[in-house]
Amino acid sequence: MAQDLPRVTALSSNLLAVEERPIHNDFDDEGPGYLSVHGPRHDNDHLNFQDVQILPTTDEILAVRRPPYIPKKDIREPNHLEPGPQRLLDTLFRHLRFDSVEGIRDISYHAAQQLLKQTLGTTNDYEPQQETKSGNRYFLYVDVRFEELLSDEKRGVILRLSYLCPHFMRGRGMIRSGRLEQGMLCALVCLEEDGRSLSVTFFEVHMTQSTDSMKARNGKGVRAAIQLAFTTPAKSDNVRRVLRYAQGLSSGQYVLVEFPKLLYAGFYHCLHTLQQIRSTDIAFTKYIAPRNASFAVANSVNVGLLPAMNVVPPAYCTTAEFRFNLGCLAQNNASFSLAELRDAPMEFITFLKRETTLDDGQAVALHDCLTREIAFTQGPPGTGKTFLGVALSRVLLASRSTTKPKPLLVVCLTNHALDSFLAGLLAAGVTKIVRIGRGSKEEWIRKFELRALSRNTRLAQDVWDMKGVAIRNAQTLYTQLEAGCKGLNAAYASGSLSWPTVEAYLRSTHHEIYDQLTTSNDNPYARSFAFDYWAGGGDLRNLRELRTELETCLLGSTASEGSSISTEGLDRALEQIMLHAQYQSARAEQNNIWRLTLEERQQMLRRWKAAIDREELMAQFATLHTEHQSAEQAVRKSWQKRDSKCLLEQDVIGLTTTACASNWEMLKALNLEIVICEEAGEVMEAHTLCSLFPSVQHAIFIGDPQQLRPEVNEQKMSLETAIGSQYRLDESLFERSMIPTDPSSSPMPTSQLNIQRRMHPDIADLTRLVYPYLQDHPNTTTHPSTNGIAERMFWVDHRMPEAEPSAASKSYTNPYEVAMVTGMVQYLLRLNAYSLGEIAILTPYNGQLAALHDSLKMTCSVWLSEKDRKGLLDEGLLPESGDDAPRSKDELSMGDLLRIATVDNFQGEEAKVVILSTVRSGERPGFLKTMNRINVACSRARDGFYIIGNSATLGQVPMWQQIIDIFAARVMSIHHKILTKSRIVAFNAERSELAVMSVKNPVIRQIFMRDFHARVLVRRFIHVAISARNSVRNLVARANIRSSNKSYLVVTLLKCSAREAFRPAWR
Hints:
Rossmann fold, P-loop_NTPase
């Protein structure tokens, strides 16, 4: 039976099984490739990581019996490489690649199983949305058919497929669904007709076409089409295999797999750059990748006992004439030499505090950053990290050499942070900035983008000539490719020969005939028409008919460029073809094919068709595609000459970490000397290495490793898990350097900003659990308390259970907390003291975010960040309808929108009032158990901070228990517990315990539901109010309850005795 299961080749030991893909809870550390005791795990298991194909091969997808090789991060662990840069590159590549493609492998294997089951007839069920055993979701499209081969000037061969379209995607539903968007990764899984050969080929979505596009091809309103481009770099064998499918040389069953919202470019460029980087291409390897193990390894030194590493100053500032120019920050044009900064640091720091707007922590950090060639600055929430980064940039720009000054490189993780940093520079007077990449949503940045600035850059004539040669070469190959696609389509549809399919055969085997059919016109379409002219007996047909056919052929070749053929050019081409035919006919040779009758020509075409090796033809066409892609790469490199010149003319180059990796080769050639990385605590070390070019002499990292870490897809790679603690993919270079996990590593010296300007001191006390040294700026004490609520911060404690995750979502929700948040927001808005933009709602779960969105959008306009919206769409929690379509910040001011967000996507943001819905109310605290996430959640509020959650659940986490103690110590918590919809809980001040009271009167319940402050007031003091009439009247009169509710509340409470109104259940 095993030998009949599908595999890649007959020699492969990896098979597609019917059983579910096993989940390995550990990794193999025997070594890669042949170093493993059992030999290579699959055909992509190589000793040298630079030989590993980034996307998984089919054999790798089927290799499920053995866990993959993933090296441990600790340099004391066994490894086939010695400590040093090469080992660091190998480790980071293998870690990042596993995190990027493990889900792809899992999904592809599961999709292949579904195809096998359909082929075997063991299942008739078909669901567009599928889920693997590991929880990876994807979309599956069945009944896939090859329609035609197309071509694109940039991407080469384009494959057009049709498939059975799910009901909700038909017609205009395709746009609303958000499926199959351009650039997303897809896979074509094929089980060949013999049932034993399996292949998986990856594509990027080039264009999506709805069911309307298939009406002309008998789609009957149920079939849609899609255009797919091969992923780059495309292997010739993969192209050839797909061409064989498209041309009917191989047949089988196909399914199309969509990896939801997975951009190929999102992970490819960093991995590809890591493979390009050599050991000598990384700066500061003596700090981040020392070749020799520390003395501490041999002596088993414990963690924390090693002194901080000594960091020398940047090389460029060690010359005698160099001085740091502080005139851009200070009132006077002061400047300092490196010696002055090192010998008298306190004098320099005192000067900064006196003459500039920098506070104590920022002044110390600026000094340290200037005097260390690799510098780390930790900035707790609200301490002005971006402000410090802008100040550093200004000083470094002012201190550059006047002869050929190099630009400053600014790298950020997100587009939002990059735009914020560049806006700060612009406000400070730095105008010569350029932004690489197109991810910005800000209109003001458009004129600073590289593509806009480079248009005005002039190049030397020889560079223009080289670029022209590259463009012409690519255009020639593309023209051949385009003609070949049309020829193959025609040959497959009608079975007749075309010039692209016969040209190579005639050139190699019948050269004399090839010469007779080749005209002097270089246009491949004209040559193709000459062949058709001969094959169809055109030299005997009406001239007007021939002219119309030639015009159609030539116009088809230029339609993509939007150009046209002049009458004169058309006549000239036709004249050349006819003169060529007449000349060949007049020749007396016996083998002159132009003297053959039409029947003899048809016989000759049939002999050629039988003689042509179509397999070889597919191989030649696949090679043509790869050659075209190489030519397009040469064109891109020629354009980079212009871009490079433009970049060197600027003062600051800004880009994201992804853009830095994708433009690594161009940026490396600029020989940049200074790099500033903001959000450094959230940047994976692999991405950081892509910015440490060998020419860099000064690298400055600003961030906070104690806030959110880099995001990972596979939790087995996270240091927050037991297994992941050995691999630590989400450990940034900043965190590894500041708080080394490896006992053999000395920590890097780190500066710390210590004055926060965001939170009121009461709220800042929560963050002081993480940063005991944090001080409050005097201005924070003037922050007003929350309007309409007596307490600046309180905890609404409850025991209402969380809702179990649905099969579709898997994300937790808590309906009770949704209702509480909604009521609180409505109450705050009725006071007219806050705009929507001054209130933020945070939660750790996408499921709760979707529930809050659905509840709050009924009464106010809400804003979801792009990342949150994407997360909800990925989980199917947010319909992409017209009402919920994303709105840009330009359409509505942020002050008109209530911000709701997940905690992970709100780092770097703040609001006057923040309400946190913690969701979990069971045995486990969930996402909010990590210190980093708790730190972010509790440090976003300026004036008021309110938590709704189960203190018993969260109190299992030590940091949460400390936070609960802070709330309790300040008597700012409201304890209550609701057992049913009709029960409220009042705080018993005398007994310090919970009293559960059931409200029978429906009108009071309605008041509780409508009026948040009434609920809070009654829950805290109702047991006092029911004792006497005066107590009730005074209590209600003092409360901030709507006047329409006051009188009725008093009368009702007095009419009802305590026994009739409430049933106490003391605890």
